[in-house]
Amino acid sequence: MTEFHTSTAEGLISNFYNTYDLEEMAQKVMPKGAFGYVASGAGDMFTLRENIRSFEHKLIVPHALKDVEKPDVSTTFDGNQLTSPMIMAPIAAHKLANERGELASAEGVHRYNTIYSISSYSSFDLPDVTKALQGTPEWFQFYYSKDDGINRHIMDRVKEQGIKAIILTADATVSGNRETDARNGFTFPVGMPIVEEYLAQQTGESLKSIYGSAKQKLSTKDVENIASYSGLPVYVKGVESPEDVEPLLAAGASGIWVSNHGGRQLDSGPASFDSLSLISKAVDKRVPIVFDSGIRRGQHVFKALASGADLVAVGRPAIYGLALGGAIGVEQVFNQLTAELEIVMQLAGTQTIADIKNFDLRDNPYDPGVLSNDPARLKLY
Amino acid sequence: MTEFHTSTAEGLISNFYNTYDLEEMAQKVMPKGAFGYVASGAGDMFTLRENIRSFEHKLIVPHALKDVEKPDVSTTFDGNQLTSPMIMAPIAAHKLANERGELASAEGVHRYNTIYSISSYSSFDLPDVTKALQGTPEWFQFYYSKDDGINRHIMDRVKEQGIKAIILTADATVSGNRETDARNGFTFPVGMPIVEEYLAQQTGESLKSIYGSAKQKLSTKDVENIASYSGLPVYVKGVESPEDVEPLLAAGASGIWVSNHGGRQLDSGPASFDSLSLISKAVDKRVPIVFDSGIRRGQHVFKALASGADLVAVGRPAIYGLALGGAIGVEQVFNQLTAELEIVMQLAGTQTIADIKNFDLRDNPYDPGVLSNDPARLKLY
Amino acid sequence: MTEFHTSTAEGLISNFYNTYDLEEMAQKVMPKGAFGYVASGAGDMFTLRENIRSFEHKLIVPHALKDVEKPDVSTTFDGNQLTSPMIMAPIAAHKLANERGELASAEGVHRYNTIYSISSYSSFDLPDVTKALQGTPEWFQFYYSKDDGINRHIMDRVKEQGIKAIILTADATVSGNRETDARNGFTFPVGMPIVEEYLAQQTGESLKSIYGSAKQKLSTKDVENIASYSGLPVYVKGVESPEDVEPLLAAGASGIWVSNHGGRQLDSGPASFDSLSLISKAVDKRVPIVFDSGIRRGQHVFKALASGADLVAVGRPAIYGLALGGAIGVEQVFNQLTAELEIVMQLAGTQTIADIKNFDLRDNPYDPGVLSNDPARLKLY
Amino acid sequence: MTEFHTSTAEGLISNFYNTYDLEEMAQKVMPKGAFGYVASGAGDMFTLRENIRSFEHKLIVPHALKDVEKPDVSTTFDGNQLTSPMIMAPIAAHKLANERGELASAEGVHRYNTIYSISSYSSFDLPDVTKALQGTPEWFQFYYSKDDGINRHIMDRVKEQGIKAIILTADATVSGNRETDARNGFTFPVGMPIVEEYLAQQTGESLKSIYGSAKQKLSTKDVENIASYSGLPVYVKGVESPEDVEPLLAAGASGIWVSNHGGRQLDSGPASFDSLSLISKAVDKRVPIVFDSGIRRGQHVFKALASGADLVAVGRPAIYGLALGGAIGVEQVFNQLTAELEIVMQLAGTQTIADIKNFDLRDNPYDPGVLSNDPARLKLY
Question: Is residue C44 within 8 Å of residue B297, measured between CB atoms?
Fold first, then answer.
């Protein structure tokens, strides 16, 4: 295994105007395989595309003269005052994007002040990341081992760090069909200390072998076990079917995380946003809903909240910010989305996050046509 | 601030066949930042595109042998005989397009004989524009100040000019997310004498700072205040939600102006034309409806009138006409759209504007496919 | 007026595989203005595109094992045995495509054996065309003059030729917005002897001035007048609204011709094929229905017949055949469409034209996506 | 007739990541005419495109935590244990793709262990192919002769080989409108020994003349005759209309094969997948359903099974595998689709083929937009 080097950027990113720009810019500073791993999706990348396109299936009809000024994006969740309902999505191996990896992203999230989700496949170990967070609320995304001893050991360590919730990944019991990774011959050039007990080797593993090392045969029983052993709230991530809600709540899930893993796992499934209102109806406010997959704009955040989400997780854009500006870059991405959200709130006639949650979107019966993030159109003039 | 120079064109524009041509031609004679400001939209420019595409959601089914000849586009509005129901939309800073700015556009509108809307952000002062209009009906688009004294002062001046109505802009309490302007580093290189009392500097301000100087916290109370202080009819501009109609009428609005600000403010909202029939149903003929956002063709005017509009405001095309031909160019744009409208009226089987208003459009259940104003298709043969 | 020269081709066209090919090939042998006049449509050419795209709104679901062999395309209409229900659409000035103009197209139609529609704007006079037809049934497309004396004179001449029906053009009381013609500065370089009495000059007139010379103020009264003076069946061409059917039948129309003039007149109206079943329901078999606008394939003919048409008129493809192969070329185009139709009939499980008329198409709820006649796709392999 | 040479490849194909890649790669190793014959479709290739696009009309919504591990793709059909429900579709003249033709494809299918369908137009004779199959179940696709004696002779030979079922091709009584073949001047450069009795010449025939030599006037009576003479189950292939099911079952069909011949026969008909659930409802589990036309992905197999198919036939991809890797290549294609299917099963929450059959797909009300197999998108990163 040759040494791996990626971006060491730290500082304000200049000349970007939206998160689409960041993808183009990050492609230039990250190694090809690492960038391909982050940016691509599974199979035909249908679900990846639909994740973004689907936001145009519902429209924000502005309300006139609603007495709004300086809209307030802040929210309180589980006793924590957050800058906004946007949180950091769990993502493997931040070292792919920046040498300082999770240390920098945690620092950036601390600066912005929101929930940080650390992946089991973090490239830094739990205590280091927790330290970098300086008290910012931290959640742990669990890739469950086949070995219950290892699972208990990991949970013990998680609790030691004061982590506030466990996210059980339900949509990744095997690797999605990541053709980009296959074409690029991508394997992880960085280690994953949290799960080193169940990995065959320290670096050079493919996602397929890593996911293969985790437990495939997950069931609602695992929710019960995690909840009872850890005593922590368990969020089940990767829920898209309303029928799954009842059994998950019965098993003790403390929250439902609507996601299709950013279009990286099961291709040919629905856009995450298209599933959100169905899930929201099934949950009926009994537990919080977290949403991810496709967030690139402030208006996407608005639409997700108006469709039932309580928190909205940001993934790829934050990683591009990390590649381009380290901790500062991560904070800047959240600030950019926040600034966009504030404009939308003001123009839509909503003063608070609660107003957004009560906002009725209009169904768009028409095809959205071209992809909105087509660079040729965005830079037309 | 370096000096700003733009087109000084005055005279007939040659070699244009529709208003799409004008956009391409104007791009060549206007400074990049100024053109970008006029042509672009907010965010993904989804709403900008939909504004035009949406006209194909309804179809004009021609009626055969309806005894039509030389259809009559004239209309009477508020006691004024107008050449057609097409009026001049309020647009900031006409000097961006032509050194003679609002003086020339007012002259052009006078030649055509229709209502002229002057923006608070006009690059010429009220008396000069009123004079150029030579008695043509004039409406004033109000960007309300935070300072009530300034508001009253502006209304006093408006009334002095004999202006016939006030348009309260409801959809622009902050600047939309104008990425083109950001990319171009655009700030206004021209002054705005009407609102100079509430602007920080005479030139070099961004739209964001200008809109920020105006009042954010607008409410229906402001409609009441403007109506009562000015004694003039108040048109609320930027209405897209049918639920907003009742409170606005209760507050004393004399007309509803359906608009999304040409796709320049809240991106991800519906096409203005898609909202028009919903608003029209809610208004139910109690007050007049003005429509703008997306008008590029005579058939668009026809469809807007058939969907409930009483007046149809033309924006960007008139500004392109101004850039390319001054007063004559502005008149020519209105004449071009009029000529197109007359063909549509004759072929659809409608003799008068009243016939159009009674005309039933057919819903198009199919996706319109490619954008109609794709130059590659329009110049195919 | 400089002399006009166009194709003098006569003989079998080689290397074409469908009628789309012919358009590309004809563009090479016809003068630019003449080709543009034939190929283009009005305005945005939305209706032109939809005319072809719309055929994919309904699908032919084949029926298995229906005992079909050598399907029979022949039909009897008004006592005439025709090779197929495909007839020649009325089109102005065939000399634009071939020096032998209507003489050659008439000869081609005679060879194929079907109804020939001669336009008032034919570039050869009535007796010459009738002679070239050698007894093949002929219909006359009437562009009605403002002068009733001229109309009667034309009808007298029509009757002298033994013409069997009059087609009253209802959708062209003024010229559609033909931007291609305007861009090309196209005027007719050939004369129109049938209507020379009401044209200002023999050649060099624009379509706008020609249509302007004809009568604008057409009404159902004109149907009555033509029927009563000529004693011939009157087909009203350009009907797209079901509401128009009843008044037309009451006025004595002997047939309804569903058409939007090939997308050349009112742009922004529906595809002709999308209107056909609505009209068919309104007509309810009381009179025959002729259909045109968009026929490029045998399957289009099949779908039109299955949607209520009794005859299907072929326009542009025949003119391209004329340009590329004279009389033989025209016949070849009809033969090509016939061969395609026969394949469709055999594979769909329909032995006769009557079987097609009883065939149920399946609605296609999905967007047809790309234009089927995209050359890049048709020549992919 | 000049000698014909094609690929002689035998061995593992490298550097392909999905079956779309194979099409691009096969184009490089097969003669142009042969490749065009295999890859292209009829007419506008609308149905060809829709065959693939249509899979996005239904979506796989994954179910969370369903206790799945190492999903089992195996199935039992008619007493045979098969590796998966994927079988080899009947395709003419495998020698076009590989010198070893059906001998190699049979060997590949034997290695994979599934049903092999041999075409009447096989380029190797029945006994040779049967021998290469080494006991793997074999079905015979019958192109019925006009001559009943020949038909009986062929059936005698079929029975001698121990073939287990006869597939009666209902959708190819004449050749579809194969323009690619016409453009390429393609005729079969290889012989077809099984039907040599009814072909005019050994090589150099067009598909049109070959299909023309077979019987056109097929009816349900032929199903009865084949079933009664052969004593074998008869599968009717090319069924898309639910109304056809009842008569076919009444005539003794033992199975319904939903297919549009890969978009090669009747263009302008529905995607095969769009017909599948309609047929499935009509069949109501009385007989097995085989599905083909458009299978390129494991997820397509999943969706077909969930929509009522019992077996799913793979056509073009297997032929590309044959061209690129002989027997090994064919096996590899089945393995590739199997691997994709296993990922989908695991992620969707389905342990067995029976689970897939009970799986509810979600209707996708939105247009799938761009073709998923657009290489520019698939190789984006």
Answer: yes
Task: Indicate if the pLDDT at residue A2 is higher than 70.
Answer: no
Q: For residue range B118-146, what is the model confidence (pLDDT) as tens digits?
A: 999 999 999 999 999 999 999 999 999 99
Burial class (CB within 10 angstroms; exposed 0-12, middle 13-18, buried 19+) of D27: middle
What residues does B239 pair with on adjacent strands?
A: B258
Q: Are C11 and C328 in contact (CB under 8 A)?
A: yes
Residue D90's nearest CA partner among D17, D186, D194 is D194
Task: Give me the half-sphere count of Cα atoms (radius 13 Å) on the Cβ side of residue D73.
Answer: 27
Is residue B1 scored above 60 in pLDDT? Answer: no
SS3 D290: strand
* Cβ atoms A95, A191 nearer than 8 A: no
- For A43, A172, A242, A258, D40, the CA distances from D64, given in Å and listed in that order, are 20, 10, 11, 11, 40
- Chain B residues whose CB is inside 8 A of the C267 CB are 299
Say if CB D173 and CB D213 are below 8 A apart: no
CA-CA-CA-CA torsion sign (A276, A282, A284, A286): negative
- What's the CA gap between C265 and C271, in Å, rounded? 12
Q: What is the residue whose two structure tokens read 């104008």?
A: B178
Per-chain mean pLDDT for chain D: 95
Closest-CA residue of chain D to C15: D183
What does the H/E/C string look like for A265-316? CCCCCCCHHHHHHHHHHHHCCCCCEEECCCCCCHHHHHHHHHCCCCEEEECH
Residues C192, C193, C196, C200, Cα dihedral to 10°: 40
Within 13 Å and on the Cβ side, how many CA atoms surround D4? 25
Residues in A touching D367 (Cβ below 8 Å): 367
In this complex, the residue of C346, C372, C381 whose CB is nearest that of residue D44 is: C372
Closest-CA residue to D163 (of D104, D226, D207, D225): D226
- Is D182's CB within 8 Å of C17's CB? yes
Q: Min CA distance, B179 vs chain A (Å)?
A: 6
Q: At a CB cut-off of 8 Å and minimum separation 6, what does B148 contact?
A: none
> What is the tens place of the pLDDT at every residue in D163-199?
999 999 999 999 999 999 999 999 999 999 999 988 8
Write out the residue range of the structural domain in which residue C83 sits.
Answer: 19-378
Q: ∠ at Cα A89 (A88, A90), nearest 5°?
A: 120
When divided into structural domains, chain D yields a total of 1
User: What's the ipTM?
Assistant: 0.97
D51 in a domain, yes or no?
A: yes
What pLDDT is recorded for position C197?
87
Task: Output the furthest CA–CA distance in chain D (Å, rounded).
Answer: 62
**B97 in any annotated domain:** yes
Each residue of C111-169: pLDDT tens digit? 999 999 999 999 999 999 999 999 999 999 999 999 999 999 999 999 999 999 999 99
Residue D302 and residue C92 in contact, taking contact as beta carbons nearer than 8 Å:
no
Is residue D1 in a domain?
no
Q: Is the pLDDT of residue A373 over 80?
A: no
Residue D372 included in any domain: yes
pTM of the model: 0.97
CATH number of domain containing D82: 3.20.20.70
CA distance D334 to chain A (A): 16
- List of chain D residues whose C-beta atoms are within 8 Å of the C-beta of residue C70: 216
- Tell me, what DSSP letter sits at residue D356? H
Chain B environment of A66 (Cβ under 8 Å): 219
Residue B112, burial from CB neighbour count under 10 angstroms (0-12, 13-18, 19+): buried
Report the distance separating Cα C109 and Cα C119, nearest Å. 15
Collect all residues from B whose CB is shorter than 8 A from any CB in C: 17-18, 55-56, 59-70, 297-299, 303, 340, 343-344, 346-348, 362, 364, 366-370, 372-373, 377-381
